[in-house]
Amino acid sequence: xxxxxxxxxxxxxxxxxxxxxxxxxxxxxxxxxxxxxxxxxxxxxxxxxxxxxxxxxxxxxxxxxxxxxxxxxxxxxxxxxxxxxxxxxxxxxxxxxxxxxxxxxxxxxxxxxxxxxxxxxxxxxxxxxxxxxxxxxxxxxxxxxxxxxxxxxxxxxxxxxxxxxxxxxxxxxxxxxxxxxxxxxxxxxxxxxxxxxxxxxxxxxxxxxxxxxxxxxxxxxxxxxxxxxxxxxxxxxxxxxxxxxxxxxxxxxxxxxxxxxxxxxxxx
Length: 268
What we know:
The protein is an alpha/beta fold. It has 12 helices and 9 strands. The N and C termini lie far apart (46 Å). 45% of the residues are buried.
């Protein structure tokens, strides 16, 4: 499979393990337009190749991924009619590629995982999280409805009550709390997530591959059954992307202050 020519991702294969790195460390690996194109494509190619059996995904620098790039969200907010259809299509394609992949993916969460970055990590099959890392669905902080897979995976991982707590507040989840809730597989010390994720991947690569992949395929029917929920949440996120609150929220996030939302008495 192709491992060069990527802008957002760094991709390499070693010992039948595909290593995928979100590679915008100066932007905390925020996903730009190139990332929206590259991520589903690399998952599809991984699923089809005979060169690798397991994938490990992590982030360059001090973050896993803080989700959608603020500049990209701002562009969509300013031109919703022109930008939202393509964004919905790419987001849907990414989550579908993740769910349909029979080969296992191990996430090494080495730092903050926020928004779509959190959703991508939590959809992985094994999730190794460093002690100092944090996870947040985060959409509410951007005045957006949760729509990048959070509504799909959080209730299955932690139950509806806790999913509501974290999606309706966008609060951060610490590593210890994430492990206690069953949101992640295990917690390791700072700097050790990639090594531990690689150990897990090496073990999975030695397993009977047909049995392993068929087991994952069967388990993922839980996610496929919930696809209409994801599809609806993505549409609702698209609606909120066009609203004026988004610009207020983005300005506040950039300035690390609490947003003063404009009053809106209308029932959504």
